[in-house]
Amino acid sequence: MTATSFAIFDTAIGPCGIVWGERGITGVQLPMGSEDKTRKRIHQRNGNIPEAEPTGEVRRAVDAIKELLAGKPKDLSGVVLDLDDVPEFNRGVYDIARTIPPGQTMTYGDIAKKLGGVELSRDVGQALGRNPCPIVVPCHRVLAAGNKPGGFSANGGVVTKLKMLEIEGAAVNHTPSLFD
Q: Does residue 164 contact residue 13 with C-beta atoms inside 8 Å?
């Protein structure tokens, strides 16, 4: 999982970034408030890799991400990822999350059961919190028990998660609290 280049691109939710290497996409960065902040976060996570024009396959992924974030039900399951450096359990979580279509959701418990038992729910949440490729691995479609939003580690937290789910037309039980 060696990142070689990155690009910044505009979406309906703000400037995102995509990082890739020879074997596929190694990271997606959700908006950090500005292009400069998004670029800075990419460098923090990947070192001083160069900004470059996306390759054909990466360009197709960028276009699909933009369409999805504009409200079109785009399937990103065919986007090639390079997650070799990611722990096996996390890859299993991400593989299951990638099967959730736009507008649909699963719970942490649903994924945990598929991996061996509901007692793995916390581990599923931790794996999703470390997701290097949000949107392509749609961690925003994974909810807490009772279809409540649960956490979201991206900039903007649960507000960003809810916005992404709203764009996709997913139903979520959400009552704003002091912690939102």
A: yes
The dihedrals phi and psi of 37, each to the nearest 5 degrees, come to -70, -40
User: Cα 86 from chain centroid?
Assistant: 14
Considering the candidates 86, 139, 164, 170, report the single residue annotated as catalytic: 139
> How far, in Å, CA of 6 to CA of 51, rounded?
5
Residue 113, token pair as written in the block: 């059961």
pLDDT for res 178? 41
What is d(CA 18, CA 114) in angstroms, rounded to the nearest whole number? 29
Q: Which band of pLDDT confidence, cut at 50, 70 and 90, is reported for residue 170?
A: confident
Q: What is the per-residue pLDDT for 173?
A: 73
Half-sphere exposure of 157 (CA within 13 A, CB side): 6
Query: Residue 49 pLDDT > 50, yes or no?
Result: yes
Active-site residue flag, 16: no
Other beta carbons less than 10 A from residue 87's beta carbon? 11
For residue 116, pLDDT beyond 70? yes
Confidence check: pLDDT of 175 > 60: no
Q: CA-CA-CA-CA torsion for 126, 130, 135, 140, nearest 10 degrees?
A: 20
- Give me the helices (H) in 24-170, please: 35-46, 56-69, 88-97, 108-114, 121-129, 157-168
